[in-house]
Amino acid sequence: MAILEVRDLKKSFGGLEVFAGVNISIEKDQIYGIIGTNGAGKTTLFNIICGVLRADQGSVLFNGEDISKKPTHKIAELGIGRCFQTVMPFKSMTPLENVRVARATAGKKNKEREKFSIDEIMEITNLTDKMHIKTQELSLPDKKNVEIARALACNPEIILFDEVSCGLSGEEIYSRMELMKKLSKMGITVVVVEHIMLFIKEICDQVSVLHSGKVICSGTPQEVARDAGVIEAYLGGKSNENIGS
Amino acid sequence: MNLKKWVVSGVIAFILYMLFLRLTDAGFIANFIAYISLFVIAGQGWNLLGGYIGEISFGHAVFFGIGAYTVGLPVGYKLDINLLLLVLLGALMAGIFALIISYPLLRVQGFPFLVGTYGLGVVIRSIVVVTPALFATRGIFISTYSKNFTYPLIIGFAIAVVIFVQWLVNQDLGLRFKAVRDVPTAARMIGINIYKTKASAFVIGAMLTGLAGGLFALYGGFVNPSACFGDNTSIFILLGPYIGGIGSVLGALFGSTIVIILQEVARSVITVNGGHYLMVGALLVVVMMLSKEGIYPGIVKLVKKIKNAYQKRQGE
Ligand SMILES: Nc1ncnc2c1ncn2[C@@H]1O[C@H](COP(=O)(O)OP(=O)(O)OP(=O)(O)O)[C@@H](O)[C@H]1O
Ligand SMILES: [Mg+2]
Hints:
The structure holds two protein chains of two kinds. By secondary structure, chain A is an alpha/beta fold. Chain A contains ten helices and ten strands. Chain A has two domains: 2-79 and 157-242, Rossmann fold, CATH 3.40.50; 92-156, no CATH class. Chain A has helices at 42-49, 72-78, 95-104, 106-109, 118-124, 140-153, 170-185, 197-203, 221-226, 228-235, and strands spanning 4-13, 16-26, 31-35, 57-62, 65-66, 80-83, 158-162, 189-193, 206-211, 214-219. Chain B is mainly alpha-helical. Chain B has helices at residues 3-23, 27-50, 61-76, 83-105, 111-130, 147-168, 172-182, 184-189, 194-220, 225-229, 231-245, 249-269, 277-290, 295-315, and strands at 140-141, 222-223. The A-B interface holds A 50, 52, 71-73, 76-77, 81-82, 84, 88-93, 97, 100-102, 104-107, 109, 147, 150-151, 153-154 and B 172, 175-176, 178-179, 181-183, 185-194, 247. Bound molecules: adenosine-5'-triphosphate and magnesium ion. Magnesium ion binds at residues 42-43, 85, 162 of chain A.
């Protein structure tokens, strides 16, 4: 059974139709990539899964249970974690406090799923020597790390990452990829939205491409890179050089 | 944790105060410190919601008044109940009232919340003023304990409340307050129920402000609608934390102290009726011009700046 499934999702903002019947099914322990051009609706999809926005139609199933009417904090308690595209750490707190409060809230509800201690979380997110500095004083990559650490502290079954590599250097991106792989190996399902194709190709088991309100293609990164529709959507059919390379 | 430091400082402050009471007979200053302490307690209560959650209430006199009248009313009806018990009951009543009123009030945020709390203050005061059973505008006299007992009591409570709030904001619940203030969406995403969290800050804060009201009744031996439920009371409760440095325990402590001292100094200098508000207003303008975040963060920044400049010089 899929851990997370989106069925026949429809959503419009006023006259703007973002989803015209989207279906996505994510298997447990996969690394699942979602790609699409700017404005394709990737962040909106995450917002609907998390209950921040409501779909006009369709449903979101988490472990078979319909969560599309649940409030966000309940969805978090069920085991869905998230990192935001625009970083949103709790800036007046230290990284340690960010993690502590997550551990004491959703993390407490999901104690039986606990995979990392607070010290381990600090270590894998490279925050050990910065954990007592106010988060607002940290660099952007570190703020992103704080978000990852906070999501991990919730003991989630699945984490949604919205462009975690955006604005990072090559080395930092590489360490992010390693981290994603590590989480997946430890039994946390990972969903990534990324613009960097190498990232997707390197780590994802499955990819879906959002375009004009639909999933125009799903499959392994290789399959997706060869798909004529995807090439058309991304490059107007000129070449497939950039996709999958 | 640095809570130990707070407790030690609190105990030292209390001992110094007691020594001061023993060695001098400066009744005026003792009286003054007790009065400041009342606003320190009430202000710390306001700060839990206003500073740590970020919802500005303009009606905290309601909770102050409930605390004061819980002490006053039984006395007015000649019931023989221990006054200290009534003070604690007053805090409880303020908390229960906050819990009830939180349901409609906390559904709105920002400016509507501010207006809502102001409206609540007006409604409750009006009810008290026109209800004979609540002694209307006449108020109630309370034959209270001697000042040798009430002053140390009030100061003891103020110290305990400051330490309690400092402790609370570093507990999981306090971190939840700050999470809701920093980024509500992210707070939800770690499983925080925003409404419940705000309501906790509101209720605990109201209990502290109610406690201050009850102690006020013991302190002055008199309660009436304008002193307990008045707009001025609301304003002085919020002005301390606001001027001192919103969302900081020490800031609120400084702020309440400065506001009350300034008010009293102005009252003795400016003899025109109500003229002393001029000073408080002027202070507000000056503080907001110099440091938007308030006095305490402003001073911290200034000290840092001087330190940095000094270190630079040393390095050269
Ligand atoms: N709350 C909202 N109200 C109105 N329009 C919205 C809202 N959220 C998103 N949109 C619009 O919906 C479309 C999809 O936005 P979304 O942020 O989901 O795209 P995205 O795929 O994440 O893009 P990007 O790659 O730039 O992050 C955009 O046209 C956006 O302007
Ligand atoms: Mg986006």
